[in-house]
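[Automated response] Your request has been received and processed.

Submitted sequence:
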Amino acid sequence: MEDCIFCKIIKNEIPSEKIYEDDLVLAFLDIKPVNIGHTLIIPKKHFENLFELPEEIAIHIMKITKKIGLAIKKSGADGVNISINNGKAAGQIIFHSHTHIIPRFIGDNLPVWPAKTPKEGQLKEIAKKIIEELARP
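Generated structure:
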C-alpha cells in the first residue's frame, strides 16, 4: 500500500524506534503511547486486519507478542494489555494489521473496558449466532 504509514516504516521511509525484526514482522515503539514502552507488532506484508492475515503469520505474531510482552514486563511494567483493533468500529485507525502491547503500571489509572450487563436471554442469543457461524464451512 502506497500511503500506508506502517508500510513506509517497514521500508525505512519513516523512522521508528525498532525493538524487534525478522523476516515476517517488525516491532517498534508507538509514537503516541498509552504508556511508555507501548509497542506495535506488524506483519511486513500488508494485510488490513487480523482477518486477512494468513494463519501462519498470525501464529508467528502471537509468539513474538508473548516474547516482547514478557520483555516489557521484565523491564519494569507490572503487567501488559495486548490488543488488536479490527475495523473502524473497533478503534482501528491505521488499516495495516497491528498488535498493541501496552505496558501497565499499578496506579497508572488507565481505564479498562467497561462491562455491560446483558438483557435477559441476550447471552444465549449471541452464543447461538456465533456457534452457527463457527459451524459454517
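Summary generated for your ticket: The domain at 5-135 is CATH 3.30.428.10 (HIT family, subunit A). The radius of gyration is 17 Å.
If you did not submit this request, please reply to this message.
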